[in-house]
């Protein structure tokens, strides 16, 4: 290999060492990521849709453990496990009814960098805070989502822990339970990924003329595997790679809802239109082959919106005109809080204190809650039950 070309390997190695250093720094003292977020009583009550009094009474009569002790004169607030327990005890769990179908949402777009992994991880943690049981499936060999959950895909994850063992041409697993990992969130599990998941794509190319039947078999497999797992969850989130390949196609078919993120820029808009048109063709071909895809909703979400940038407003207007009600009305705002949290391999929902100013943090959190809440509403409509907002009214009057 020529000396200049061999530099590429050196660059990769230097980069890998830096990623591991950053990860260790982010997750000290252990290399495992913790979860330190806490919720004040007012916030907890709001999340549960009840009064603070109801929580205090339950703490007094012993149904709930005593409120967490104060530290330096300030109340510590409730941890995520405490909040979940509170939901159980006070009957405020949003979990679906047994006969409601779990939402299996593909967060998909063939355009790279549109915010798929950012939306997937924030959506997972939003749903977790709301009390749902969530499974996140990292289907992308770039493994951004796996990283955001605190794993180093290169060092902590082997190929056998990814979807590979199940989707490979020579599968060593017959169901997906082997791949499910707990995360620092008690109600969020993860199927991780790493670079070697890409072997699934290579194998198909190598299968030659058998490729079509291998492909069809994999489609069915991922769907079956996920349906079998989904019984344990309310929401399953799929983060596929930004390209049309075997895994992307299998994800398309395995999902029962589609969320397409895109930034308010012309290249994202144009690529997303191409994605939709390609998807339409693929879905028709699949239907022709007897593979039916059934989505309970298809929505686009603007994933990085800067209201101060006139070009963003212009492109958003174009998106509104083109997509009408399929474009979710509340965009995710572009925020330094999101990119700074990503540097720490976290979502904004995992920050126990603001990274930027308190105002920036609050604004970002409020926007994320509102944007993610739109998706929660869609999921709950599919379950044919009252929305959480209605429940809040019910609890308040009870
Ligand atoms: N709302 C936002 N505000 C600020 N930064 C954002 C926002 N959304 C995404 N980003 C940043 O944009 C970059 C790309 O986002 P992300 O990795 O989620 O995209 P992706 O579609 O998953 O990319 P890929 O196609 O490579 O999988 C990341 O650095 C992320 O932190
Ligand atoms: Mg990604």
From TrEMBL:
Coiled coil: none annotated. InterPro entries: AAA_dom (IPR025669), DNA-bd_dom_put_sf (IPR009061), DNA_Partitioning_ATPase (IPR050678), P-loop_NTPase (IPR027417). Pfam families: AAA_31 (PF13614). Residues 104-282 form the AAA domain. Gene3D superfamilies: P-loop containing nucleotide triphosphate hydrolases. CDD domains: ParAB_family. This is Chromosome partitioning protein. The lineage of its organism: Bacteria, Pseudomonadati, Pseudomonadota, Alphaproteobacteria, Sphingomonadales.
């Amino acid at each position: 290999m020529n000396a200049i070309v061999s530099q590429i390997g050196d660059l990769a190695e230097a980069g890998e060492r830096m990623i591991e250093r950053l990860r260790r720094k982010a997750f000290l003292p252990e290399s495992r990521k913790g979860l330190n977020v806490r919720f004040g009583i007012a916030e907890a009550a709001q999340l549960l849709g009840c009064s603070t009094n109801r929580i205090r009474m339950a703490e007094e009569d012993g149904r709930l453990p005593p409120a967490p002790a104060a530290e330096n004169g300030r109340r510590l607030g409730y941890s995520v496990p405490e909040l979940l327990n509170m939901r159980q005890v006070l009957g405020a769990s949003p979990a679906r009814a047994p006969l409601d179908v779990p939402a299996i949402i593909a967060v998909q777009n063939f355009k790279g960098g549109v915010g798929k992994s950012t939306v997937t991880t924030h959506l997972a943690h939003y749903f977790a805070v709301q009390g749902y049981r969530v499974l996140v499936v990292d289907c992308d060999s770039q493994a951004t989502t796996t990283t955001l959950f605190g794993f180093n895909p290169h060092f902590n994850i082997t190929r056998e822990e990814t979807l590979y063992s199940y989707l490979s041409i020579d599968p060593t697993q017959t169901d997906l339970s082997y791949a499910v990992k707990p995360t620092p969130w008690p109600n969020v599990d993860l199927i991780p990924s790493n670079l070697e998941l890409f072997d699934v794509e290579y194998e198909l190319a190598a299968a030659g003329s058998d490729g079509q039947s291998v492909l069809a078999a994999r489609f069915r497999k991922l769907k079956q595997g996920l349906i079998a797992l989904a019984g344990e969850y309310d929401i399953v989130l799929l983060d596929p790679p930004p390209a049309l390949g075997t895994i992307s196609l299998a994800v398309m078919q395995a999902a029962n809802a589609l969320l397409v993120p895109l930034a308010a820029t012309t290249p994202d808009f144009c690529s997303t239109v191409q994605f939709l048109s390609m998807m339409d063709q693929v879905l028709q071909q699949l239907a022709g082959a007897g593979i039916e895809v059934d989505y309970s909703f298809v929505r686009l979400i603007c994933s990085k919106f800067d209201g101060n940038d006139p070009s963003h407003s212009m492109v958003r207007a174009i998106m509104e005109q083109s997509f009408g009600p399929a474009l979710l009305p509340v965009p995710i705002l572009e925020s330094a809080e999101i990119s700074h949290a990503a540097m720490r391999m976290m979502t904004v929902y995992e920050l126990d204190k603001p990274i930027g100013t308190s105002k920036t943090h609050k604004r970002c959190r409020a926007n994320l809650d509102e944007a993610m809440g739109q998706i929660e509403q869609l999921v709950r409509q599919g379950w044919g039950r009252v929305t959480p907002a209605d429940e809040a009214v019910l609890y308040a009057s009870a």
